[in-house]
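Researcher: Quick test of sequence recovery. Tokens follow.
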């Protein structure tokens, strides 16, 4: 008879333990665990200004300028007619150069011609030389 009492006692103790563990885990949240706020939904809009920035995807026919820093020895190897000091560029050329330089990207432009073999290819700006790469998409 004793083994039967021990077995019944073990079953009672284990069922109480299991009942205590499963009290709040029934699958439905209690008041303290339910979310009290609703999720916030935000939306973004684009403006016409975004389409004129330098970070947009290039379109077919775009004339782009990018600048890359090069060593003085590289710049000095080309013909002097292909090198300029920044202050000697005209205002439009300076504006396009700075646009590309400041954003470190391809700047849309129409100042430096792709097929002009005599165009400026190297510019000295802030005591550094920069190669001007002109590309047409």
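Model:
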């Amino acid at each position: 008879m004793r083994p039967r009492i021990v077995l019944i006692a073990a079953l009672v103790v284990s069922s109480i333990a299991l009942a205590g563990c499963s009290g709040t885990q029934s699958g439905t949240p209690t008041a303290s665990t339910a979310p009290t706020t609703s999720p916030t939904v935000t939306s973004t809009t684009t403006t016409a200004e975004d389409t004129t920035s330098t970070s947009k995807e290039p379109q077919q026919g775009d004339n782009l300028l990018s600048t890359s820093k090069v060593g003085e020895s590289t710049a000095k190897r080309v013909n002097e007619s292909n090198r300029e000091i920044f202050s000697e560029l005209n205002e439009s050329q300076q504006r396009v150069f700075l646009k590309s330089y400041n954003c470190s990207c391809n700047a849309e432009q129409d100042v430096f011609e792709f097929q002009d073999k005599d165009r400026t290819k190297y510019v000295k700006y802030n005591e550094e030389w920069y190669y001007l790469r002109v590309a047409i998409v």
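The beta strands are 63-70, 83-85, 107-108, 122-125, 128-136.
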